[in-house]
Here is the input.
Amino acid sequence: MRTTSLLSAIALAVGITGGAAIISPAMAGDDGPSRFPTADMLSIAEVHQRLVADGFTRIEEIEFDDGRYEVEAIDSDGREVELELDPRTGRILKKEFDD
Here is the structure.
């Protein structure tokens, strides 16, 4: 499974484009019904913006896997969480707290 850290993607994009960051979605898994994001889905940048607006911080990883976005972040209470998001709406489908 190939994963790409959002921060690494941003750093790489900024380094390559000289500031005009273009973020490509991380691709993972090959067993889901929708293996690759499509035009009607939110971009990684849009997912990141929505999570920040909802109070999440230290968003360490956003990847597309099995037809959903999977995210590792810190919630507004300072807890580490793993999220699964609907790729079209950004709605949180699943939230698991790390112990």
Notes: The first helix runs from residue 6 to 17. The longest strand covers residues 57-65.
